[in-house]
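Hi everyone,

Forwarding the result from last night's run.
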Amino acid sequence: MIEIYKNFELIGINPVYSKFTWTRRFSSAGEFQLETHFSPEKFEELAEGNIIYKRNVDEAAIIEQRKVIQTAHDELKLIVSGRQLSCILDRRVFSFMGEIGLGALLSQIVNNNFMAGAGVNRSMVADGFRFIPSSLPNFNVSADYRNHSAYSAITSLCEEHGLGVKVRYNLAERTFDLMFLQADESDVVFSKEFANVLEQNYRDDASEYRNVVYVGEQFVHNDAAFRGLTRREMFVSAPREATHFVQTALDALHENGRVQMLSSTVNPHSEQFRYMQDWDIGSIVTSRSAELGVSERAIVSEIVEIYGEEGLSLVVKLD
């Protein structure tokens, strides 16, 4: 069920659409797109800043863009899109340098930039923003951020360490509840052998892969194991601050990693492993292709729900 809210007040239920895509992500904000026929009532109901709430997955998104298109048959089409609520973390920048536990760093970013520690003008507490603490890994990480996007830092840390981030639309309390999640182990297998996969695509891309970084003329992030043909170098500009070389190198390596991915179009009606009962976003599952001899154990990092004339289809990405 799709519901539309403004200031936590329900203003619409199940808008008629020709196509609706709901993309769920574990470590960053998912997104949605809704296509429907234009009417002044729909245009007002689906206004920028209103909330799309999908009750069956307890997830919500902010309407950020609207387009009205006139077709060749003089029909007006309304296309509405936006991102899920964790995108509000993109509204703050912060600075932090040092070595600190991962859980402590995530908590500090949130408390100092969104909660009371952010100050009167920057705090979102008056808007209903809450931080729901949870048990997180607390091994030390080296952090080096200067006027950095809080959203970019949080999602990068979550992706790198297999954590999830979610902002729940809490209607009962009228709050936006931020929480960090850990992946859940499961015995689910996506494979043609189990008749729960309609299509599979495998991608192995090393075209942009790099493992040695030169930062300006002063710093090299190097691993002596990479020699000869295995050594793949890249150059990035040096940061202004002398202490930012390590983080600049690590960011460059993260952005230029090798891509190995087995994505599956999952049968949402399969009884073998049922969506949102046996597995969900953040589940650790096995994806297997007997033809390719590829099998991987990975986190369900993205689920695309596509609703159209033929019903629901699912595209699942593993990381």
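The two ends are 29 Å apart (CA to CA).

Cheers,
N.
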